[in-house]
Design brief:
The chain is of the alpha/beta class. It contains ten helices and 19 strands.
Length: 447
């Protein structure tokens, strides 16, 4: 291979690395029943965790999935899990939670920490073999100012979320991460890694064992309120339900216009390298931690569960790319951070949609039609959406106000100029990328 093709292995796959271990499938899709107590639209982490908790309390549940279970974002993530460090983080570096609402911030962090404990308990309770390890996570500071911001955040995060984090100097970070690109960082001890596809597969098995009916290839075209019930119309049949829960996140379609106009789907791209030489494996990230950068348009990376490959992700571009195009962009970003990987080839390339809300916070709530929702992973879907699905189910079972959760205090915000068309994302995303480059350049020129 020559030119740009030289970066790809001969067996390159335009599909997720995780699907080599478990691929979405449904050989015998269940028929859509005529009636159910609860209908959940979307079989991602939020939908399945909501279904599992409801079923464990004796409720009748049907899940309608537009494609194959696990085909969407749930098996496409980077598999890094934490307990609240990204709550309210925005691309613009502004705080989504106002400083004068310290109580709400405290409650959100506390519940996010509970979400991480829930995830660990769920994996243990259902014996989910998903390569989960509490490895710790590195927040790699793009510029020194980001490190100063972390210093201000750490006391509250350590107190409330109990993430056991500490600041690393540039030299200390270099011992953890063999890259010259960063100016120190933060080591978060209470964080981990898992295989998102195998976690999803184990969760799906638990949900089916609890008696939940999963209907694949059943995209919902309409939800009609009929007195005290709802008629949910899908491509494979209609079901009458007492309650409807929407858990579609970044894959929310025009048939759910209220939510679609409040969620910005952003595609996050990832690549996997070929197996690395032993010397690189031992020196690149010697303690095998997850890593996330601190700039506006961030990158995140980790080793594969067997420690052989580097998995590297980020927003390659803010417009449509095929998998080879996104791989070329990410390969360039990868080698800028790790020049020692310039001759390493790419074996897999994939992408999935992240649901970004206009206030950068996750939400549970009610649509004007009276349907419940759990949406807004904002890039922290494995932990947060698992928790919010469970949290919403508890509300339904216990009949408590949504506001008992800090993520149910306020409804999803909208904007009069946004209806779900993301035409502005190439402009906005490129602007933030330029800001990141200018920040880096300005620091380099003064040091």
């Amino acid at each position: 291979m020559t030119g740009n093709q030289a970066i790809f292995t001969e067996d390159f796959k335009a599909s997720p690395y995780w699907w080599d271990q478990w691929q979405p499938q449904d050989a015998s899709p269940a028929d859509v029943p005529h009636q159910s107590e609860y209908v959940i639209v979307g079989a991602g982490y939020a939908g399945l965790c909501c279904a599992l908790t409801l079923a464990q309390h004796g409720k009748q549940v049907v899940v309608l999935e537009a494609g194959l279970p696990g085909e969407g974002a749930s098996t496409l993530s980077g598999g890094q899990v934490t307990g609240g460090i990204n709550v309210g983080k925005t691309m613009s570096s502004k705080k989504a939670i106002r400083q004068n609402n310290e109580q709400l911030k405290h409650q959100m962090l506390l519940e996010a920490a509970n979400g991480y404990r829930f995830l660990e308990d769920l994996i243990a309770q259902h014996h989910i073999d998903c390569d989960y390890r509490q490895t710790g996570r590195l927040a790699a500071a793009w510029i020194p100012q980001h490190l100063e911001s972390w210093k201000k955040r750490l006391p509250l995060l350590n107190q409330v979320s109990q993430i056991q984090a500490r600041i690393l100097t540039r030299d200390e970070l270099r011992a953890e991460l063999d890259s010259p690109a960063y100016h120190g960082g933060v080591l978060i001890e209470r964080a981990g890694l898992l295989n998102p596809a195998r976690y999803y597969a184990g969760l799906l098995n638990a949900v089916r064992a609890a008696g939940v009916v999963i209907c694949s290839r059943s995209p919902v075209s309409q939800i009609q309120k009929q007195g005290a019930h709802y008629q949910v119309i899908s491509q494979r049949g209609s079901v009458n339900a007492r309650q409807v829960i929407i858990a579609t996140n970044g894959y929310t379609g025009p048939e759910m216009a209220h939510l679609r106009s409040r969620i910005v789907p952003v595609t996050s791209h990832q690549i996997a390298t070929e197996a690395l030489p032993a010397e690189l494996r031992q020196t690149l990230i010697p303690n095998q931690r997850g890593v996330a950068e601190t700039q506006r348009v961030t990158h995140y990376f980790r080793y594969s569960p067997d420690g052989s490959r580097l998995l590297f992700g980020g927003r390659a571009r803010f417009y449509a790319l095929d998998r080879q195009q996104s791989a070329r962009v990410l390969h360039q970003h990868l080698t800028q951070r790790f020049p020692q990987l310039r001759d390493i080839k790419i074996s897999h390339s994939w992408g999935g949609k992240v649901a970004v809300t206009l206030d950068y916070l996750p939400h549970i709530g009610l649509t004007p039609q009276g349907c419940f929702y759990a949406v807004g992973c904002n890039g922290s879907g494995v932990t947060m959406m698992s928790w919010l699905g469970h949290r919403l189910a508890r509300h339904l079972i216990e009949a408590t106000p949504l506001s008992t959760s800090p993520y149910g205090v306020s409804p999803l915000p909208g904007h009069p100029l946004y209806t779900g068309n993301t035409w502005f994302m190439p402009l906005l995303g490129s602007y933030y990328q330029v800001r990141d480059r200018l920040d880096k350049s300005a620091h380099s020129e003064t040091h």
